[in-house]
Structures are given as structure tokens and as C-alpha cells.
Amino acid sequence: SHYLWIKFLPAVTIGISPFAANTFELMGTVALMIALPLLLTSNDQSIKLFKKNWHRLQKLSYLVLFFVNLHLWLLGDIESTALLMTMTLFLEMASYLWPAVRKKYLQ
Fold it and tell me: From CA 24, how far away is CA 45, in angstroms rounded?
């Protein structure tokens, strides 16, 4: 979000292209802009309001993960990128296995 307030908005107001900045900052800003609506709609009231479209909206989190990984990779932080990708893979696998585990052991 620091990119948005410190570089993007002042550049737009004085007429400089905001895309002349570092690409990694832009990728982080894109991830943040996509993540904010997801954060605001992650509640029971939004689930009732959006119904089936809520799941479609929340699938944008995969896009956020892509931009965050790209942001870290462009920043040169390979260790954090690898850790985030590993955690994402683990959580995705757990989300697919959880219904079977719950059905077999918890009911």
C-alpha cells in the first residue's frame, strides 16, 4: 500500500506515468487491490448476499497469490517466494483432502 500513497497517486496528480516505477512495486499494488475486496467480502453477510457468486469472487485469491509470488520474485526474495509457494501447495492439498478426512473420522 505504500506504493499507492507514496508513488502512484502523486505521480498521477502531477502527470507522470505511474508505470515508470519498479515492476515489483506494481505487482504488490495489484495484489493488494485484488485482495481488498476479498477481505471485505469474507463474512457471513456477504455469503448470503452474493450466494453462488461469492465462491467465484473468492477464487480471485489464486490471482492474489500469483501477484504476491511475482512481487517477491521480482524483489529478489527467492526464499520467501519458495516458502509461500510451498505453503500454498500444502494448503491446497489439505483443502482437497479435508472433506474425505472429515467424513471418515469426524462423523
Answer: 35
